[in-house]
């Protein structure tokens, strides 16, 4: 029988651990979320982060800035937050307007407060790991992008072996695909990255023990990509048309990249959408906040 990798349940269990760790702290960890403009999807993600933060006893400050803000003013604002002792983590909610320079904005965040793990100092620490030719004691501790961290936690907490396993990561984004591939390489898996120019994805997918799909394409991983015994992590979140209501209005539902119904008859374990990687991303963000808090001590 297929095992469902339940991110919602695991997220709740980690929330209990985080709550008890935070309860012991005199000064509570504080996360600053900077939002530029008023993207409805961002509003929903920020709402989930606030709710999780409140649940575990952390504090979340939401700074809503206008679309018209200049690059320099935003960088100045971030630098002020870097200096504040009462702020332990900083996120600039993505996407941001194209008028802003995303790279410069990420670089402005103090790497010890960079709970999204997108500052080059943090990406470099991940790039170096597992520090094969370096003394790990000489490497500063870094923060890893939350979705990548959540995926690895979901696999490990479900006792899925990674050492020597063949893993295919579908997607090469800075936010998900690349950090996930690096983190799994550091866990001693043998990782291949596929992207939109990959030829014969189904053949490649079948050759791997674990498939992590972060393409944002509903139905990309169908039964022609799957074989018995595989573990599937579905990162994709795609809004597709669902059944029409009585009023003939099309309802939308959220699906992943994987044909879940087909996959669950073939593979040995799979994460659902929703309820898989999504809740793990929020959880990992707050694990990062706790780590950031300790880095600043
Ligand atoms: P992105 O658009 O930046 O990257 C998509 C990647 O998929 C690209 O590297 C592209 O080359 C690859 N790709 C596209 N079509 C492909 C194809 N046909 N075959 C192989 N590769 C293909 O997106 P992203 O930010 O990395 O997010 C990916 C998906 O994950 C989206 O659906 C996003 O909503 C979702 N996501 C979910 C969470 C979560 O917490 N559940 C977090 C972040 C992103």
Describe this structure in words.
The chain has 297 residues and is α/β, with parallel strands linked by helices. It has 2 domains: 26-110, Rossmann fold (3-Layer(aba) Sandwich), CATH 3.40.50; 146-278, Rossmann fold (3-Layer(aba) Sandwich). Helices cover 38% and strands 18% of the residues. The protein is built from 10 helices and 11 strands. The protein has helices spanning 7-23, 40-56, 71-83, 102-108, 120-128, 146-157, 177-186, 201-206, 260-263, 277-295; strands spanning 3-4, 30-36, 59-65, 89-92, 166-170, 190-194, 210-213, 231-234, 238-244, 250-255, 269-270. It has a 6-stranded parallel beta sheet. The longest helix is centred in the C-terminal third of the chain and has 19 residues, at 277-295. The mean pLDDT is 96. Nicotinamide-adenine-dinucleotide binds at residues 147, 170-173, 175-177, 194-196, 198, 201, 214-217, 220, 235-238, 277-278, 281.
Task: Reconstruct the topology from this structure.
Elements: E1 3-4, H1 7-23, E2 30-36, H2 40-56, E3 59-65, H3 71-83, E4 89-92, H4 102-108, H5 120-128, H6 146-157, E5 166-170, H7 177-186, E6 190-194, H8 201-206, E7 210-213, E8 231-234, E9 238-244, E10 250-255, H9 260-263, E11 269-270, H10 277-295
Bound molecules: nicotinamide-adenine-dinucleotide (NAD).
